[in-house]
Protein 1
Amino acid sequence: MTLTDRYKKGECKTVYAEILKLEEKAYQPEYYADIIDVLRETFRRVAHNLELIHAELALRGYNFCKETDYDFQNPICKPAQETEKLIEKLDKTVRSVGAVPESIKMFYQIVGSCNFAWDYDTDDEIPWEGADPIQLFPLNDMLDELIEMAENEEPIEYLQLSADYLHKDNISGGPAYGIEITPGPSIDGLFLNEEHNTTFINYLRIAFEHGGFSRGQEITVPDFKDYLCTILPKLLPI
């Protein structure tokens, strides 16, 4: 049975644990195509879950950004037509310091971007403070910042993907969350500056286990618990 078959049968965490143990062997022909299929299935599920979460939160009057002038403001933004060219440019931009994990490339190819942060500019009464809603910047915005850093000869240490949970609550916080630039080719990488100290894919798993809020375990108010009871049974495991 392939890794993809096992993943679809429910062995999600076990399959990824085995993939990470392979390290550089993951790129050998007997593994690589199967692993890429696992990634495709994973991020199809990520896209599916984000759509469901967005719809449920919208029904509950969650204050997403509505006046969107830029892609990063949109709750969900599908992949751009030029995604493959942008990924090539991303690889080239970071080549001198390392490699971009396959997981974030697949996120941009299949999902695009998301921003489930409460729009505190139009309503500063944030109902679930500290919950840390999922937010992952569009590829073009992240890449523009990297290119500017490279042109200014600033060190590129990681790919910045999200504000931290304090900034999302309109409080001065720490550095942006992001995925590491690995020394060599990698299937997944660490999701940095986020308290769970885990990989990007496992960070997404944790966020979905709490309805799209990676610190949802901190929220005990009844309406959040009611939301979880509604949304969690609908989400696909990753």
Note: Strands lie at 76-77, 113-115, 135-136, 158-162, 177-180, 190-192, 198-199.
Protein 2
Amino acid sequence: MTDYTDKILDGRAVAKHMEAEIARKIEQELASGAVRPVLATIIVGENPSSVTYVRMKGNACKRVGIEPRKVELPENTTTEELLSVIDSLNADPDVYGILLQHPVPRSIDERACFDRIAPEKDVDGVGVNSLGKTALGLPGYRAATAKAIMNILEYYKIPLQGKEAVVIGRSPILGKPVAMLLLNADCTVTVTHTKTVDIDKVVRRADIVVAACGVPRFVRPEWIKPGAVVIDAGYNAGNVGDVDEGAFENASLMTPVPGGVGPVTIASLMQQTLFSFCDRNK
């Protein structure tokens, strides 16, 4: 088996570096008299993947010095009940960040709930206020996975200016925001999706490929231009990404699944909670 170790964009290493810096800054704030910040995570129902993600986020909070608060709601929670919970967290001065674990049950208006989170506490970057600021290049919170991708590219000092980037996926909390962030970083960006005609030809032009369509191994190895940087933001059943592992052959650098974008997404949530904490305690 070919060893692609030298081509791996190691998300765990990026997350560890970020967490150390976050923990240091939080301790500085606490030493100055600030009260330990709370990150509240709301989970509706008992989706096994969501339960695992919430546990991982709680563990990350503890590692960096943030107090996790898990708010568990039953599957039959209504939109109105969830909005009321969000309102109470918005009003709680100890809470610096609010995360609504995605997905919620189909009966709930997820967009209304995302947009009810106070902009200054939207550390997951999912509200229209945060997305609008991303589009305009204004300071603010970014969609966490999109922010994670940019953090990986920055950590590995991957040049972006003038590069051609292709994003595969158009979701409002990943594909669209990462396209905007790449555009803000002076990339030339094409957004594609599973319905794009001749998508293989579009992807072959890319210096940077971001796969975020939620289809296992959708991106074929032969689509990748030799030397391209590949970010696989997919996570599917069986620990499989949206990019076929054979793409390591052509890519110059590529994130693995697992151990790529996932750990940095959680670290980016911690990072943006830190930003909220520092902003309010200036």
Note: The chain has a mean pLDDT of 97.
